[in-house]
Design a protein that fits this description.
Beta-lactamase; 2 domains; 11-stranded antiparallel β-sheet; 5-stranded antiparallel β-sheet; globular
Amino acid sequence: MSKADKRRSSSRWTAVRVPLAVVTALTLAADPAAADGGGPGPGPERPPAASAAWLAFPGGVFSVDTRTRTVRYRACDGDTGRASDPDMRITGRAARGTLVVDGTAYAYDVPLVGRRWGALEVLRPGARPQRRTGPVVTEPPPPTDPVAGRRLLPLTDRLRQVVDASAGTNPAGVTVRDLSGRFGDQQIAVDGTFRPKAASVIKLWILVELLRRVDCGQVSLDEGVLVTPADVVDGTGELQHETFPQVVSLRRLAEYTIVYSDNTAANVLINYLRGFGPVNALADSMNQWQTLLGRKFLDEDAARRGEENYTSPDDVVSLLGAVWDAQILAPASRDLLVGFMRRQTLNTKIPAALPPGVPVAHKTGDLPDASHDVGYYLIPGSEVAVAFLTSGPIATGDEVVRRLARTVYDHLVAPAGAGRTP
C-alpha cells in the first residue's frame, strides 16, 4: 500500500462517517470562543492561540502543529507518526480535521489555547468509535490566574541579570513554571529556547518513555534484562562496578539511571526501548522539538561524528510539567519518577545553592562543556518546576546554575507582596 493510500485527508474519506458534532460540542462547552474566535472573550488577559498543541488523554496524546498542518496520535494502541493533514481546518482558536492512517480515522477538535478541553474520536474498521477527551497543552501554558501570575514576573529580571553576567563564559537559559497555584501557574523564561548539549538531562525522556509503557501494561518493572560486559561504560553510575553478565531488573535500571545518573543503565534502557526512535517520538508527540536523543552515553565515536543529544529549558519544563500534572504518566509512575529524582546523589548544584533541608527532586547533566540541573522545588505551597542549562566550562557553569537556583529560591520565600508589580 502506498503512503498516499495510507494517509488521506478528510475530504477523501467517505467510507466512514465520524460524528464530529459531538466532538465539537465538547470543545465549545469548554471555551465558547475556541472554535471560531467569536463571542465575548475574557478581556485583555485572554490567552493567545498557539501554533502547536497536544491533547492529553489516558494512555496517550494527540498532537497538532498548524504551521506544518501535521498531527500525531501516540497512545498505548499505536503511533501514527507525524502525519500530514493538508485539509486541517484552522478556525480562530482551534484546529479540526479528520485524518485516515492505515485504515483508522482520527477526527479531532483541538483548541489552540492551553488548559481548554479537547476531543478526539478514533474509528477503526469494524470497531465502535472510541472517544478521547482531555486537557490541551500548549507551551507555555496560559496562567490560570493572571493576577497571581504577575507576582512571578519580577523574577524574570533577576534571572536575566545572572544570565547576562555569565554570557561571555557560560551562555545559559532558564525556565520556571509555578505548579502550586500560588503564582497562578505562571511560566517565565530567560532564553528558554537556548539549546545546549543535553548531557544526562536527556535521561528523563528515557525514563518517561519506559514508564509510559508500564502504564500501558506493555512492560513490567520486574522484568529482567541481560547486561553484558560490552554494555558497561564508565563516567557516572554504579553498575560499572558490578560483575557481568548478569540480569538486572528494569526497576533497578530505571532507579540507577536517575539516582546515580548511571550511564550503563541508561544505555541498556535505550537498547531495551529499541533505539533512539521511541524517545524522540515521545518528545515529538509533545511538540518538544528542541529535544533530541542522538547518541548513547560515553559514545565518543558518535560524538566525533557530530551525533549529539540536545534539549532546551522550555522543553525540559514542558516535560516536567506534563509529568507533574499526570498528563503523560499515570500518578503512580509520576510518583515513582519524582521519588527517584528526590534521591539524586549528585547534589553540587541546586541542593548546594539552597538552605539545608529544602526539599527538591532533580536531575543533573554534566559534560566538560555543559552544566545543567533541572527538576522540582518541593516547598509546600510554592512548588515549581525549573530548568537551568548552561554551556561553556563546567566549573564556572556549576556556579551559574547555583546562582540561578538561589535566585529562584529567594523569590519563592520572599515576604508576601515583595516584588509585586503595580
